[in-house]
Specification:
This protein has helices spanning 3-10, 12-15, 38-47, 64-68, 75-92, 107-124, 139-147, 162-166, 178-185, 198-208, 213-225; strands spanning 25-27, 51-57, 96-103, 130-133, 190-193, 237-238. The protein has 239 residues and is of the alpha/beta class. Helix 3 links the parallel strand 1 and strand 2 (51-57). The radius of gyration is 18 Å and the shape is globular. It starts with a helix and ends with a strand.
C-alpha cells in the first residue's frame, strides 16, 4: 500500500468509513494571535467544518524572529485565539492544525505553542492528542548539501556560502502537506508544525481525501490570507 492510500485509509479515524464529498476548512485568521470574532468558529461549526487550520507565522516581518526564535505575537494573544479554536475543535470532534509555530517555525516555537496548548487543555478539560513536527536543520547538514551542489539560492539572492550558513542562528526547512497528513492519520487531533507553507495546512486533508490538487491549492491560497482583502478582514473564512 503506498503512502497516499495508507493516509487516506487511516483518515477514516477522522471522517468515518465514508469520506465526505465536500471538505470544509475553517481558517479563522491569517496568523494565530491576530484575533478574530468568537462567532467565527461557531458559524463554521454550523456549516460543518471538517478541520480548523491556522498559520502561526510569517516571513513578512523579516529575519529577526527567525534569528532570535522569538515570536512576533504575544503569548496572551496566541493563547486567546488558540483557546477558541481548541474548544471548537474538540466540541465538533475535528482536528486543529497550527503551522509555522512561534512566527518562524523554529523548534522552540513549536514547543512554545505546545506549552500554551497544554495549559489550555488542562484548564478546559480538553482531550488532546498532539503531534509536534519540527523543521529546524543543522548547520552541518546544510553545509554538506551546499558543498555537494544541492543547495541553490533563489534569485535575486546572492549565492549561499558555507560562511553564511555557519553564521546562522536558526535554519528551518519548509514543510509541505505530507507530514501533516501523516500526523492526522496517526490519530493526532492537534498538529503543531515548524515552518510550513501557509497553504499546506489548509490543503492537507482535502488532498489526502483525493480532492483535485489544482482547486485545492488555489482555494488554500485564497483562504490563507484572502480575508485581508475584504471589507471585514477579521471575519475568518470557511471553504
Amino acid at each position: 500500500m503506498n503512502a497516499d492510500v495508507r493516509a487516506e485509509t487511516d483518515l477514516r479515524a477522522v471522517f468515518g468509513d465514508e469520506h465526505p464529498a465536500t471538505v470544509r476548512v475553517l481558517v479563522p485568521v491569517g496568523m494565530l494571535g491576530g484575533g478574530f470574532p468568537e462567532e467565527t468558529v461557531a458559524r463554521a461549526s454550523e456549516l460543518g467544518a471538517h478541520v480548523i487550520a491556522v498559520d502561526g507565522g510569517s516571513t513578512d516581518s523579516g529575519p529577526h524572529y527567525l534569528g532570535t526564535a522569538i515570536a512576533k505575537t504575544s503569548r496572551t494573544a496566541v493563547a486567546r485565539d488558540l483557546r477558541l479554536i481548541l474548544r471548537a475543535g474538540r466540541a465538533a470532534g475535528i482536528p486543529v492544525i497550527v503551522g509555522s509555530c512561534g512566527t518562524s517555525g523554529t523548534d522552540a516555537g513549536v514547543d512554545w505553542v505546545f506549552g500554551i496548548a497544554s495549559e489550555i487543555a488542562e484548564a478546559e478539560g480538553l482531550e488532546l492528542t498532539v503531534s509536534r513536527i519540527y523543521s529546524e536543520q543543522s548547520i552541518h547538514i546544510v553545509t554538506k548539501f551546499l558543498e555537494a551542489g544541492a543547495v541553490n539560492a533563489l534569485p535575486p539572492a546572492e549565492p549561499l556560502t558555507a560562511e553564511i550558513v555557519a553564521g546562522c542562528s536558526h535554519i528551518v526547512g519548509v514543510l509541505g502537506h505530507e507530514p501533516i497528513v501523516d500526523a492526522l492519520a496517526s490519530g493526532a487531533n492537534l498538529v503543531l508544525t515548524g515552518r510550513a507553507t501557509d497553504t499546506a495546512l489548509i490543503a492537507a486533508i482535502p488532498l489526502a481525501l483525493g480532492m483535485p490538487a489544482g482547486p485545492v491549492w488555489h482555494g488554500s491560497k485564497i483562504s490563507e490570507c484572502g480575508g485581508l482583502c475584504t471589507t471585514n478582514p477579521l471575519s475568518g473564512e470557511c471553504w
